[in-house]
Amino acid sequence: MGFWDTLALPFAYLMKGCYWLTQNYTLALLLYALVLQIIMCLVFGIRQQKNMIKQASLRPYEVILRKKYAGRNDQVTMKKYQDEISALYQKEGYSPLGGCLPMIIQLIVIFPLYEVVRRPLEFITGLSGEACGIIARAFGVDTATNAYQITLSSAIRNHINSGKSWADVIKTVPSETAGEWIVSEEQVNATIAQLENLNLRFLPDSTLFGTELGIRPWDAFGQSYWWLIFIPIVNLGLTYLAQFISKKLSYQSAQQDPSTQGAMGSMNIMLYTMPLMSMFFTFTFPAAIGVYWIFRTILNSLQ
Question: For the whole prediction, is pTM greater than 0.85?
Fold first, then answer.
């Protein structure tokens, strides 16, 4: 098991519990996002927001100091200015880097979090990655897709409902594919054993309105499940709204303090680039991840 998979285990247990409670993959994603948002808020969010409030309260004093030393760029003056700024921060108990650690930790958490979302058969059902690959080839599911396990979950469920033997399906897997991938008899038997001992309560039903959430919205054009293209569009709108709210609530005083012009410019750029990036990724990722992002964006905005 790799580093990220080990790091993902706590999230896997959380997602498993969410699915056990809801018995619906979409509702499990919502509950999963909600619980994580509460944890992130309690552990990191409150501290980060307090740091932002403290920064905003100190801004007028920083403006006064900048005006005091305006037009004097010699080294002695700049050092005196930096010393006064540092003394101000120390007196008020503010650290400019105080909000960085929570952001870094949250970015690290994102990777195992998405692994749980896109690999439900491993993290929720308990099948091995090797078994998932063998089953996918048996059903002709493309393992090159970003989250083929979401699609594979429905194929397994349909086979179980058909009442057919697993041995009849798994043993038809070619022993070699493109001269590279070889399946031994031991691997086949181990896969069959895992499937026969499968707990159906933890086998995700990954459909929404009868449509498989393992499908990429980009592939939905001209298909009966065309409505999946609205997932990236909704993501675009919600991400723009979230960025707009963040910009409005951020303390910026560019007229009083010209040094904030750069920050204002960066926020204006992010106001448009972040939503467009969100739409691009949700078009190319499986729909389940897009649904999860919608939930997280709404919860982030509410927070």
Answer: no
